[in-house]
Amino acid sequence: MNIDKILLFIILANVLASIKGFSDRLFFDKYKFQMGAIQRGEKIRMLTSAFLHVDYMHLILNMYVLYIFAPIIIIKLGIVKFLILYFGSLLAGSLFTLYFHKKELYYSAVGASGAVAGIIYAAILLNPNMRLVMFPLPIPIPGYIFGLGYLLYSIYGMKKQLGNVGHSAHLGGAIGGYALLLLVYPEVFSNSLNTVLLLGVPIVLLLLFGHKLK
Question: Which keywords label this protein (predicted)?
Answer without folding.
Answer: Hydrolase, Membrane, Protease, Transmembrane, Transmembrane helix
